[in-house]
Amino acid sequence: MTPAAPAEPVTGLDAAIEELRSCLEGIVDTSSLARALYSSDASNYRVVPEVVIMPRHREDAITAVTVAQKHGIPITARGGGTSCAGNAVGPGMVIDFSRFMNRIISIDPANRSAVVEPGVILSDLQKAAAPYGLRFGPDPSTATRCTIGGMIGNNACGPHGLSYGRTADNITSMTWLTGTGRIITAGAGPEALDAVPGLRNFVSENMAVLRTDFGRFGRQISGYSLEHLLPENGSNLAAALTGTEGSCGILLEAEVALVPQSASPVLAILGYADMPAAADAVPAILPHRPLALEGLDKQLVDVVRRAHGTGSVPSLPAGGGWLMAEVGGDNVHDALAAAHRLVNDADALEAVILPPGPEARRLWQIRADGAGLAGRTATGEQAWPGWEDSAVPPDRLGDYLHGLEELMSSHNLSGLAYGHFGDGCVHLRIDFPLEESATVMRQFLEDAAALAVSHGGSLSGEHGDGRARSELMATMYSPEALRAMERFKALMDPQDAFNPGIVVRPAPLDADLRRPRANPLTASDGFAFTHDGGDITKAAHRCVGVGKCRADLGVDGGFMCPSYLATKDEKDSTRGRARVLQEMLNGGVVTLEWSAPEVHEALDLCLSCKACGNECPTGIDMASFKSEALHQTYKGRLRPLTHYTLGRLPQWLRLSAPMAPLINLTGRFPVLSRMIMALIGADSRRSLPQLPARPFRKTPEGKNPQHGTPGGPKVLLWVDSFSDALAPGIPRDALEVLTAAGCDIQVAGPGACCGLTLISTGQLQRAKDTLRATLDRLIPHVRQGRTVVGLEPSCTATLRSDLQQLLPDDPRAAELAGSVKTIAELLSDINWRPPQATGKLLVQPHCHHHSVMGFTKDEQLLTSAGYDLEVSPGCCGLAGNFGMEKGHYEISETIAGQGILAKANAAPDRTILADGFSCRTQVKDLAALDSLHIVQVLAAALRSATAHDPSPDETPTSP
Q1: What is the pTM of this model?
Q2: 951 pLDDT exceeds 80?
Q3: Residue 876 host element (H or E)
Q4: Of 784, 774, 849, 848, nearest to 812 (Cα)?
Q5: Is 437 exposed, middle or buried (0-12, 13-18, 19+ CB in 10 A)?
Q6: CA dihedral 786, 787, 790, 794 (to 10 degrees)
Q7: Can you name the residues that pair with 843 across neighbouring β-strands?
C-alpha cells in the first residue's frame, strides 16, 4: 500500500471559515480551546484540527463538506469521540455529529427497524426501542456515549455481537455523501452497486481477491469489508461501507435493523487458572449458543477492589481469569437450566450462576469499564491502546493468548486482557513506555501483527485500524487486496478528502502520538498527586478518552458529569477538561502554564463534585486539577473577589455571628440582600443565609464537651463551620442520636476546620495551615481511641481524601483520615438499631458523600428504620461556592432542574433528606423547599412515640 505523503498545509482556510460562518446554522469553532478539545479521541494520537463544525441538520453537514473540498481541507467525521485507534482525529475539519444531529427519526416495530441520524447515542436508541420489546443488536461497552454513526464507522460489535452480529449485519440502508458530492442510498441487492459509478466493474474485476482475502472469519474488521460487495453476499454496499472509518464519505442517515430483546438472560461466571486457559475453553462452550461470552482478567477486577473495596465486586469463582457467559431462555427457569448445561461442558475450576439482578449488572459494568480500568497495569504503570483490539478465529484464541503473553514478556511489557472471547476478540492495554518514545511500541506492534496473522487473525476485531494499525495491514493483506482497497476508496473519495492517512495510504503508526510530546510536570507546593508518584503529567494522562463522563449515569445511581449533562458541550466534560490539560502539557495549542485561558475556561464549570474520581474507570479527579490550577495561577497574586469572600466563609461566619439579627433583617429586604450578594461577588439572585440566634458553640450543648454514656463506643463529634454557624440544630440532634446509641461522646473544641472552601478556591497554602491546626486539635482524641464523626459530608470527605494529598508527609494525616466516619457509618459499625418509623423520603446524597464515602450505609440505616426511600442521583447543582458565584447561576439551576427539583416535583409527598448544607440551600433557594439532615430524621423518630413521617416543622431543634 502506498505510504502517506507528508501532510500539506491547509490552504484557503480563512476564506473557508468565512464562508462556513456565513452559511451554516450550526457551530463553526476555530478557537484554540475547541482545537485542543478535538485534538484527541480515545486513542494514543493527537492531531490538532483547524476548525470544528457541529452541524444542526443534514444541509449543514453537506454544506460543510462542500466548502471543505472546495478549499482543500481534509474532513474527519466524529461521533462520541470514543475511537481507540485514532479514527476520529484529523488535521483539517472535524465534524461533530453528536451535538445536534442526534434525532431518532422513526421506529417501525412491525418491520423491526429504526431510522436515525448519525449522532444518535446507542443507549438512547435502546431506550426508545425497549417499549416495543426491541433493541439494536451490537452493543459496545461505550453504549452510553458512542453514536450509531461511530459504530457504523468502526463496524462495532460488543458482547452481543456473538448473537446479533456486527454493525454491518444490522444496517438496512444508509444515506451517504460521497467524495464526489453525490448523495446516494447505500443498500443491498442487484441494483445496489449502481449507486456508485464504476463500482460494478470494480467488483467484477476483483472477485478473486475479494473472495480470498476478505471475510475469512467474523471478526476480520481490519481494512475494508469488501466481501459484502460479492453477489453471493447480496451485493451489499451498506455493509461494505460499514467499517470504512470515515474514509469513504459521510453518513447522513441510517436505517438499522432491530432485534427482539432476550426475555430472561442469566449470567454464568466460569473460573480458570488464567486467561489463556479461559480462552482454551471457548470452543467447547460455543455449541451452547450463549448470547455473549466475555473474558475478564482477575487483575482487572483487582483494580476495582483496590479502588472501591472488596464489597464493590460480587463473589466470583476461584481463578485467575473468568469467562462471563450470558445464557437466554423463554423464562428464568429455562435460562438457568441452559446455564447449568453450559457449565457442565465448560471445564471450569468453579462456576457461579447469577440470575438477572444487581450482581449481574455490576459484573457487566466492570466488564464495560474495561478500557478505563486496564489503563493501569497490576503494578500501577500506565497502559495504552494500540494493540487493544486484535481478533483470531475462536478455536485459535487459546494458542494466540499464550503467544501474546510470551511476546509481551519478550518486550518487557505487560497488560490486562479482556474482551469478546466468544468471537475471538481480545482487548488489551499494554504499558508501552510512551513517556520516553514510541520505539518499543512499534517493535511490539509489528511482532504482534505477525503473530495474529499466523493464527489466521485480524489486527482489529471491532475498533478499526485508524492511525494505530493501518500501516500494519501489509502484514495481513496481499498487495492485490491493498490495491483493491485503494481503488474502492478512489471510487468513493477521489480527492482523498475524508480521513486521509486512515486505511489507505496510511500514516506511520508512531506519528502524532500524544504522550511522548508531553512535558514533565512534578507536584510542588499544591496537591501531592501521590497516586501517580507526584507526576502531574502522568496524572493528567489518566484520562484515555473513554468518555464515560459524557453519559447520563443517573439510571444506575451515578453522579458524573453534572456540567456536561447540563450543557452537552465537550469542554464541560471530564474528558474535555483532561484534554485541555494535556494540551497545556504539550505546550502547543495551549500555552504551557496553569494560567492559560483555555485551562480556566475548561475548568470554570467544573463543580468539583469528585464524581469523576469515583465513577470514571481511570480514577481521574478533576476537582484536584481545578484546585491546583487556581492555586498555581493566583499564588502571590491578587485573587478573584469570591476567593476572599466565599473562599474564606468559615472565617466570615465566625465574625458575623454577633451581628446575626442585623444580617437576618437585611436579608428580608430584597434590594439590600441583592446588594450584599453582589458586593461579595455572588449572584444577586441568591439569598442571604439566615443565621441562627446562636451558633452551636455558644449553646449549652456546645459549651459542654462531654455527653452520652461513659464506657460506650468512644466518639468525637466534630462540628464543622457550616453546622456550627448555620445549622446548630443538626449537631444537637446528632448528640441526641449518638446518646440513644449508647455512645461516649466528646464534642470537639472550636477551630477544627477542614479548609474545604480554601481548597475549592485554590488557596492551598492557607488550606494546609488550616489542616495542620485541625490535626493538632483532633489527633489527641483519635489516639485516645475516639472515632471522629462528621456531620457535613463535604467536610468529612475532605478529611478522608484531600487531607492526605495536601499533607502527604505528615503521618497524622493518614491517621486522622482512617478515623473519620459519617454518622451512618458509625451507627452501622456499632450495630445500632434505629427506631422503627414510617414515612417517604426523597434523598439527595451530597456529591462528596457519594464519591468519597459512599452512601450505602445511609441507605441501609434508613431502610432498616422503615423509611420508603427514593434516591435522587446526581449533583444538586450548588456545590459550595460554585452555584453562588456570578456566571454560574443558570448552570446551577439547570442541574437542579434535571435532578432533585424534578424528583421533588414528581413526588411532593416525600420529605427531602439532604445532609449537605449546599443541597439544603439549593432546594430552599430555588424552590422554597425545606429539607432535613439524617440526624434530624432519626432524632424525630426517637422523640415520636409513633415514629411517623418527619417533616421540617416537626423538628423543633432545627434552626
Answers
A1: 0.93
A2: no
A3: none
A4: 774
A5: middle
A6: 130
A7: 871, 913
